[in-house]
Fold each of these.
Amino acid sequence: MSAPSVDGFVHRFVPGGAGSAPTLLLLHGTGGNEDDLVPLGSMLDPAAPLLAPRGNVLEHGMPRFFRRIAEGVFDVEDLKRRTLELADFVAAAAARYGFDPARVVAVGYSNGANIAASLLLLRPGALAGAILMRPMVPFEPEGAVAPTLAGVPVLIAAGRLDPVARPEQAAHLEQLLRERGAEVSLHWAEAGHGLERAEIEVARAWLKARADGLHRPPAPPFNEPSASPEASSSSTGSPG
């Protein structure tokens, strides 16, 4: 089997500054691209290396990270495949660009947050932490709950008025991640699907408080997911 290639995704890599900041894996929303979240990543940690791939799926010409069968319904097989491809891409990018693969934090918005959540559940060893902005539950894991995410910090930024990633989805995702041992912080904003500046400040402070201790957990066995609905996702600040 050939080694995974970093060229499987159109992407942008921004080297970090001095120090040992974790690498931020920036995952855009539907209709975004590899440039969308770079300013956000720089705001969260100006010294962090930034890895920003573009989703390989097009939906009516808009990039996404995985397909939907119809509005509100995942293509679960595609979700599984794309999630594992993303994990392989991160490993290949670490080899090419020289960042520590054990200190990668996903920063995802909407559709990007959904595949980041899927990455946590399917390949926990790929991430040392995650900031999930307006996520949903990517799928309902099957089988016995195991603490595969023990000690992994996760911040969920949810909007109480969000018609896309509804509040109950954020609360359920928090429960699923906690059951697997993750240390989850759930931040509520009186907002819809778009992000507010105050939430970025919360995420920046959250990351700064945890950056020195970020290291990925041991990789667990692969768990087969089952289907689950998803509402549409968007690039930063734009619903749908």
Amino acid sequence: MRPVIILLLLFPAAALADDRNLLAPSPAELGVQVEKPAGDGTHYSEGSGVFLGDGLVLTAAHVVKVDPGNRKVTVLLDGRRRDGTLVPDAQMEKADLALIKLPSEELGDKRRAQAPVAVCTGNPGPSQPVVVASMGTVSNAATISTPITSDLQTGSWTNLLSTGYHHGNSGGGVFDPRQGCLWGIINLELSGPSKTDGRFLDLTAFVPASKIAPFLDEYYRQAIGAPDQPPGKH
């Protein structure tokens, strides 16, 4: 995960179209761990990701940013390390999203047949219960109850979890526990004192579904060799 950003915080006054008739996989089946060598033979970047189906893993772009000349990425899926590669051009730093492609021979029959993950049509609201799949585990959390304004950002933060997820959780999936669709991808740890009462806040930001959907519209079908049909929504 990126280094912690200390902010002075102020409280202000789909399913992807497919013909496979399979049950949607649970968040526990979708969360993976991602590693990318830093290029020095010793260090590596560590994070999380979401197995979307069709051999694709969605993660945060900053997790796989190291050693940009090398597209090789390791994905821990179903208890085994699997060799993948970054999808060319499918790394959007502004949205902090990236796609990893796992070859078919790296996947078992169940993973090859898995129906694509649904992307939620809207973003979660305040105090919304969520399920987070990251670092090989699944946990329950909730979005913040009130939008937060930072001195360092115009407008309010609404895509925040009220739980702090730390190193290695970037790229993890934030899911709607009722429908099972993908609401977000963890990308930033936020911590700092509240201006109103001095409480220390330990929060986590995520890339919301409203940004994930257009990213996948542009790159998903291209990555699997079917650019003519964009993904649907849930």
